[in-house]
Amino acid sequence: MFLNSRKWDPRGKSCYVTGGSQGLGLALSVLLAKKGANVTIVARDVKKMEEAVKLLEEHRQEPSQVFRYHSFSLNSADGAAAAVEAERAAAGGPSDAYFLCAGNSKPLYWLENTSEDLTAGMDQAYWVQAWTAHAASKLLVREKRTGKIVFISSTLALMSFVGYTSYSPGKHALKGLAETLRSELLLYGIDIHIFFAPTMLTPGYDEEMKTKPYITKKIEEDDSALTSEQAAAILFKGVAKGHHHISGNFITSLFRASSRGSAPSPNAFADFFLDNIAWIAIPIWRKLTDRSVIAHRDEHQKYLESKGLLG
Ligand SMILES: NC(=O)C1=CN([C@@H]2O[C@H](COP(=O)(O)OP(=O)(O)OC[C@H]3O[C@@H](n4cnc5c(N)ncnc54)[C@H](OP(=O)(O)O)[C@@H]3O)[C@@H](O)[C@H]2O)C=CC1
Ligand SMILES: CCCCCCCCCCCCCCCC(=O)[C@@H](N)CO
């Protein structure tokens, strides 16, 4: 609270945005460009990044701003380190802020997941961000620079329900990593933020809807979805204010306020009230949700049969 009394301004700063070619990462890149930052996008598909950089050009504020991209697969230690190094070489030093938006999810029933689905789930929820955080921290410390690392987690790091076995554990793990790093990287003056995103209407969301179990879709109907632009604005505001935990909507704030662990609160007074509301509302929600899951048993049994999962 006292360490961050001044707002962070990205003007003239270098921002590294993983997953910046679409969805939340692209909306955030545009927002940073509009605020006068240099923006580097990192993802795999070059075509999408070329389009993204063209879009950033449309929002250029200063002739000196630099927009570029690097194509790397970030879910391995080597890929993430090579990407951070490619940007260091291009910029002549580390970035000022690393926004880790890359990731996706493939919701399925627990029994439907192959072992590959489950390991890919951890790679695409956790490692795809953790490896960049590791490489970026090492670079910042080596170059004696301070900076920011911003993780993109999910409401599903604070609660979970049927369908998210391959994804929710990795997003929970990011919360643990962020909380540990918030403490440890005080040693180097590196700030850590984590955004708990609610449902966001993005290309990734359209993709996950293809495998999402019916009951999971039903439960999620109560969430208030954000556009990528709305989510990027909320994320940016939280980072600018120096908040460690940033929640995307009211529902997420209820779960955040009631499970904050040793993390600093963005607003301790508001959290007192949110925690009280959560104490009453969450058990009611859970009872109703458990009831719909149980009511879905017969239909689910037929689904398992149709998939040949009953032998
Ligand atoms: N949409 C939602 O409802 C929610 C999303 N989230 C999280 O928010 C973040 C952004 O989500 P969203 O905008 O929907 O995602 P999208 O799927 O729309 O975009 C994902 C971006 O990440 C890149 N990416 C994915 N995997 C890798 C990889 N292994 N290496 C390099 N780049 C990769 C993609 O590009 P390319 O494929 O070309 O590499 C793309 O730029 C994700 O971490 C997601 O888990 C959290 C809560 C809700
Ligand atoms: C009082 C309590 C009321 C609670 C109502 C809860 C309603 C459900 C919340 C669903 C949240 C899921 C958001 C994240 C989705 C996500 O991360 C995926 N789309 C993966 O990309």
Care to describe what's here?
The chain has 311 residues and is of the alpha/beta class. 50% of the residues lie in helices and 14% in strands. α4 links the parallel β4 and β5 (147-154). α1 (23-34) packs parallel to α2 (46-58), α3 (77-91) packs parallel to α4 and α4 packs parallel to α5 (168-184). The protein is globular, with a radius of gyration of 20 Å. The termini are far apart. One of its GO terms (molecular function) is 3-dehydrosphinganine reductase activity. It comes from Rickenella mellea.
Task: Give a nutshell description of this structure.
Helix content is 50%, strand content 14%. The protein contains eleven helices and nine strands.
Topology:
Layout: E1 14-18, H1 23-34, E2 38-43, H2 46-58, E3 67-71, H3 77-91, E4 97-100, H4 115-142, E5 147-154, H5 168-184, E6 190-197, E7 200-201, H6 203-208, H7 214-220, E8 226-227, H8 228-240, E9 245-247, H9 250-257, H10 268-295, H11 297-306
Parallel strand pairs: 1-2, 1-4, 2-3, 4-5, 5-6, 6-9, 7-8
Helix pairs in contact: 1-2, 1-8, 3-4, 4-5, 9-10
Low-confidence stretches: none
> Architecture in CATH?
3-Layer(aba) Sandwich
CATH class: Alpha Beta
Class by SSE composition? alpha/beta
Indicate how many domains the architecture comprises.
1
Radius of gyration: 20 Å
Lateral arrangement of strands in the main beta sheet: 3-2-1-4-5-6-9
Shape: globular
Element order: H for helix, E for strand: EHEHEHEHEHEEHHEHEHHH
The percent range for strand residues is 5-15%
Major sheet details: 7 strands, parallel
Query: Do you know the CATH topology?
Result: Rossmann fold
Query: Which ligands does the model contain, each kind named once?
Result: NADPH dihydro-nicotinamide-adenine-dinucleotide phosphate, 3-Dehydrosphinganine
CATH superfamily: NAD(P)-binding Rossmann-like Domain
> If you average the pLDDT, what whole number results?
97
First-last Cα distance: 57 Å
What fraction, in percent, of the residue positions are helical?
40-55%
According to DSSP, the number of beta strands is: 9
* Count of helical regions: 11
GO cellular component, one term: endoplasmic reticulum membrane
Protein name: 3-dehydrosphinganine reductase
Subcellular location: Endoplasmic reticulum
Catalytic activity: sphinganine + NADP(+) = 3-oxosphinganine + NADPH + H(+)
